[in-house]
């Protein structure tokens, strides 16, 4: 069976992949995340997911410890009125993002890419999230919690940010950072089944 490497520094992605019982190790693949001119949000997240996976594979080239490596990369962006909201640079940017997301619906795009020496498969998963209205005081308090700073769109649906979410249509795990249904499907095609690491009986 190929060895799976997750090219990510995101603790959420590690937790999510662990959740479906796939054995893996991690490596960090830092790439330039600047959008290209006229690039659509879907093309952007797909390019970044692929870039992270490719950068990971490159690190393993000719490494005898990984003769049959397969690398998974992912990227998540919040999209509002066609604009890509990444991670906030500072408090002011986070507050502006939260004000923009307040009392309306936005899209969350997560792309995954799985690559080995011969193949590459990518998938882009779109979800829609509706927020209730967020007051300025709340947005300040939320920033002070520390949660928004390393998250696309300045919120975490899996954390304190859950209180803003009125409605979700799509994939919860994709919003957190890794679409588990699609990830399991693609990994299966690369010869890596899920549910390998089980604590109890197989479901
Ligand atoms: C919308 C949303 C995003 N996020 C996170 C997932 C990602 O970690 C982050 C989006 O940034 P990304 O650039 O996709 O990922 P990253 O830089 O954190 O990690 P990597 O090393 O894999 O590139 O936002 C949440 O945790 N919860 C949410 O509800």
From TrEMBL:
EC numbers on record: 3.6.1.9
Positions marked as site (Important for substrate specificity): 12, 76, 158
Compartment(s) where it occurs, according to its Swiss-Prot or TrEMBL record: Cytoplasm
GO-annotated biological processes: nucleotide metabolic process
Gene3D superfamilies membership: 3.90.950.10
Named cofactor requirement(s): a divalent metal cation
Keywords in alphabetical order: Cytoplasm, Hydrolase, Nucleotide metabolism
Catalytic activity, reaction form: dTTP + H2O = dTMP + diphosphate + H(+); UTP + H2O = UMP + diphosphate + H(+)
Stored HAMAP family: Maf (MF_00528)
Function: Nucleoside triphosphate pyrophosphatase that hydrolyzes dTTP and UTP. May have a dual role in cell division arrest and in preventing the incorporation of modified nucleotides into cellular nucleic acids.
PANTHER family attached to this UniProt entry: BIFUNCTIONAL DTTP/UTP PYROPHOSPHATASE/METHYLTRANSFERASE PROTEIN-RELATED, BIFUNCTIONAL DTTP_UTP PYROPHOSPHATASE_METHYLTRANSFERASE PROTEIN-RELATED
Name under which the protein is recorded: dTTP/UTP pyrophosphatase
């Amino acid at each position: 069976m190929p060895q799976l490497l997750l090219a990510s520094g995101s603790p959420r992605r590690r937790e999510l992949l662990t959740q479906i019982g796939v054995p893996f190790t991690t490596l960090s693949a830092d790439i330039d995340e600047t959008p290209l001119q006229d690039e659509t949000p879907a093309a952007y997240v797909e390019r970044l997911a692929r870039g992270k996976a490719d950068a990971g594979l490159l690190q393993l080239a000719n490494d005898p410890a990984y003769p049959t490596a397969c690398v998974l990369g992912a990227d998540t962006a919040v999209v509002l009125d066609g604009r890509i909201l990444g991670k906030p640079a500072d408090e002011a940017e986070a507050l502006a993002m939260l004000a923009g997301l307040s009392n309306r619906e936005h899209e969350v795009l997560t792309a995954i890419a799985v690559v080995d020496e011969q193949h590459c498969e990518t998938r882009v998963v779109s979800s829609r999230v509706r927020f209730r209205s967020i007051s300025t005081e709340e947005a300040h308090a939320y920033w002070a919690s520390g949660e928004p700073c390393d998250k696309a769109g300045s919120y975490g649906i899996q954390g304190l940010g859950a209180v803003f979410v009125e409605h979700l249509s799509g994939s919860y795990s994709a919003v957190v950072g890794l679409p588990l249904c699609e990830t399991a499907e693609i990994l299966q095609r690369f010869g890596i089944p899920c549910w390998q690491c089980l604590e109890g009986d197989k479901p």
